[in-house]
Design brief:
The protein has a six-stranded mixed beta sheet. It has a five-stranded mixed beta sheet with strand order 9-10-11-12-13, with no helix packed on it. A five-stranded parallel beta sheet has the order 15-16-14-17-18, with helices on both faces. It is of the alpha/beta class. The chain is elongated. The chain folds into two domains: about 190 residues, Metallo-beta-lactamase, Chain A; about 150 residues, Rossmann fold (3-Layer(aba) Sandwich), CATH 3.40.50.10710. The protein is built from eleven helices and 18 strands. The protein binds zinc ion.
């Protein structure tokens, strides 16, 4: 099976039936293409291990038949193994502008920028690799330029989804409309490869527009400092936080190197045009508390991220105190409960109010509007515990 014959083959080397480490091979007329080359972060069952990379032995033995690596988007579980493994494959890596920019920065910082050729493909463009004709199809996702791929082959048309969601108000980029997607289906699809996290979740994922309105409602009128933590790669959320800063008369301070990188690449790719000017942490701490909005890395309890250091009072510049607010604007990834709970408790012990996707840790009767923000289930922590792992502040 190492040489595809008169047949069409799909061979996932990672990511199928598991979260992370997405690597998919398509084979046709003696050639292979690879879709995504991701990695995953190790869990406590692998003590001492930080990253887990896919096993590419099969395709490394057949690399003369591999035509290229095609990336759907810029999340680590889709491109994180490129710096470590793509050099040995000796084929170009194809990506849309934002993903390509992100990858080039990663390769440069890891010292691999000469070893791996990154080719930028315009959004919505079509290109050919041997018997495969590949078209990028923009879908909404929590990072700019989430893409599905329409792959034309002599045997039929394939639709490889990548990660996706449907968002009526995406606020960043122009995802395909239902009509455009329906047209692809109507044109005839031989096989659909669904490669999206949460694909079995029956609930709608909500839109960025809803988040923007709800966050504005929460921050409006607050007297203390507000810090929002989210996934660094979620540039649309960073845009939302910048919008909230503008609307509430707060200055924006970004804390965390991965956020700096995303903002730099997003701006270079034409996004985040309305982000307010950024101030540094020293200046932010010199302002009245109600005049500053922080956005920080560390929403999953990562020990070395900015929020962990702030919560532990180990950050060189930033201190939060009673009356301040931390908003976790992100879903908690299963497995991170303990680390995130430790963060919540450290913040609440300092009198900082915490709002998560599920609950807020105050007993204030004020309920922020919007579907993503809800009060404690019992209304008062003294009567009923929060659903989140954090203790209530009062
Ligand atoms: Zn993704």
């Amino acid at each position: 099976m190492t040489i595809p014959g008169d047949e069409l083959l799909f061979l996932p080397l990672g990511g199928s039936g598991e979260i992370g480490m997405n690597v998919n091979l398509f084979g046709c007329q003696g050639k292979w293409i690879m879709v995504d080359l991701g990695m995953t972060f190790a869990d406590p069952s692998l003590p001492g291990v930080e990253l887990v990379l896919p096993d590419l032995t099969f395709i490394e033995r057949n690399r003369d038949r591999l035509l290229g690596v095609v990336l759907t988007h810029g999340h680590e579980d889709h491109l994180g193994a490129v710096p470590y493994l793509a050099g040995d494959l000796k084929v170009p890596v194809y990506a849309t502008p934002f993903t390509a920019g992100l990858l080039r920065e990663k390769l440069k910082s890891d010292g691999f920028d000469d070893a791996i050729k990154v080719k930028t493909v315009s959004m919505g463009a079509t290109f050919e690799l041997g018997p495969f004709k590949i078209r990028y199809v923009h879908l909404a996702h929590s990072i700019p330029e989430g893409n599905a791929l329409v792959i034309e082959t002599p045997y039929g048309r394939l639709f490889h989804t990548g990660d996706w969601k449907l968002d009526d108000e995406p606020l960043m980029g122009k995802p395909s409309t239902p009509e455009q997607l329906t047209a692809i289906g109507d044109s005839g699809v031989l096989a659909l490869v669904g490669d999206s996290t949460n694909v079995f979740n029956r609930e709608a994922s909500g839109s960025e527009g809803e988040v923007r309105r709800a966050m504005l409602e929460v921050v409006k009128g607050r007297k203390g400092r507000v810090l929002v933590t989210t996934f660094a790669s979620n540039a649309a959320r960073v845009d939302t936080i910048g919008h909230v800063a503008n609307e509430t008369g707060r200055q924006l301070c970004v804390v965390g190197r991965s956020l700096d990188r995303i903002i730099r690449v997003a701006k270079a790719s034409g996004y985040l045009k309305h982000l307010p000017p950024l101030i540094d942490p020293d200046e932010a701490m010199s302002l009245p508390p109600q005049s500053v909005l922080f956005v920080a890395t560390g929403c999953q309890g990562e020990a070395r991220a900015a929020l962990a250091r702030i919560a532990a009072k180990e950050h060189n510049e930033i201190r939060l105190s009673k009356g301040d607010l931390v908003i976790f604007s992100s879903k908690q990834i299963p497995g991170n409960e303990l680390a995130v709970g430790v963060l919540h408790n450290a913040l609440v012990a300092q009198g900082v109010e915490v709002i998560t996707e599920k609950a807020r840790t105050c007993t204030s009767p004020a309920t922020p509007a919007g579907p993503n923000w809800r009060p404690c289930t019992g209304g008062s922590a003294r009567r009923s515990p929060c659903r989140s792992m954090a203790r209530c502040a009062t």
